[in-house]
Structures are given as C-alpha cells and as structure tokens.
Design goal:
The protein is 36% helix and 37% strand. It is an alpha+beta fold. A hairpin with a 6-residue loop joins β4 and β5. The protein is elongated, with a radius of gyration of 19 Å. 16% of the residues are buried.
Length: 157
C-alpha cells in the first residue's frame, strides 16, 4: 500500500511539474511575440524587453563567406536602437520570424527561428534566450542574429 501511494505521489508531482514547465514555456513564447510586435511597431518600450546585462551577439557573414561573431555592449546597443527607431520606421524595417522552436535552457528558454528582414529574400538564423528577472518579469538575456551587415565588425575585440 505504501509503495502504491509513493507511485501515485510521484505521478502526481510529475503531472504538476510538467504543467508548470509547459505554462512557463507558453509565457516565454507570449513574451517573445509581444517583443516582436513592439519591435515591428517601433515602440519606445523595446529597450525594456532586455536585461541590463543582455548578451547581444551578431554573427556577421563576411564577403569571403566566413562568419565572425561579435558581442555588442548592451548599453550601446540600446542607445543605437533608440537613435535608429525613427529611421527604421521611415524605411518600414521589420523582422519576420519563421520556424520558431522553444527549448528549456535551465530556468530560461531558448527561442530559435529564422529571421527575414522586410524586403530581403534570405532568412538567417537567430535565437533569443529569455528568462525571468528578480522581479519575475521576462527579459531577453541573450540575442543572437546572423547578419550580412559589415558595420557590426567594428565591435570585434
């Protein structure tokens, strides 16, 4: 009888844990969808989606075909984002994400996708690691995008 109760308790705990993980995964995905909508509508709130120490990575596809990954300082990235928002709006610049998948990464979630900038025919890999901060709000902790924009190479150290 005691073994049966232990088994039932384990099954119950597994079901509760599975539902909790699924719920958090759905929250992370909903957060990402809100971020994309805010970014594509040029919202001034976009910087608030990032953790203060977010890791911003750009994998630059160089003209010789090689790829060089550079990390941008978070504060500088957010400053540039604010400065370029109006120019992006005038140009109608938007990113579209397809083939999205989400996987747990510790207590965070990695959202992988193919990113296609508006007007571009090529899709490039991107991923975001999102997780809750100390206040329980989701934030982007890591952003990785492959790009052909050579200007990012100036951040190479």
């Amino acid at each position: 009888m005691l073994n049966m109760l232990k088994k039932l308790l384990l099954i119950f705990l597994f079901i509760i844990f599975s539902q909790s993980v699924f719920a958090n995964e759905e929250e992370a995905k909903a957060f990402f969808e809100k971020y994309v909508a805010a970014a594509n509508s040029y919202s001034a709130s976009v910087p608030s989606y990032y953790a203060a120490d977010a890791k911003i990575l750009r994998a630059v596809k160089k003209s010789d075909g090689t790829i060089k990954t550079v990390q941008l300082p978070t504060a500088r990235y957010i400053k540039q984002m604010r400065l370029m928002r109006n120019a992006a709006r005038v140009r109608g610049y938007k990113n579209f994400y397809t083939q999205e998948s989400i996987t747990p990464e510790g207590s965070d979630y990695k959202i992988s996708a193919l990113r296609t900038p508006k007007g571009d025919k090529n899709s490039l890999p991107a991923y975001f690691v999102v997780g809750k901060d100390s206040s329980g709000a989701y934030k982007i902790k890591t952003e990785y995008m492959q790009t052909k924009e050579q200007g990012f190479l100036k951040y190479n150290k």
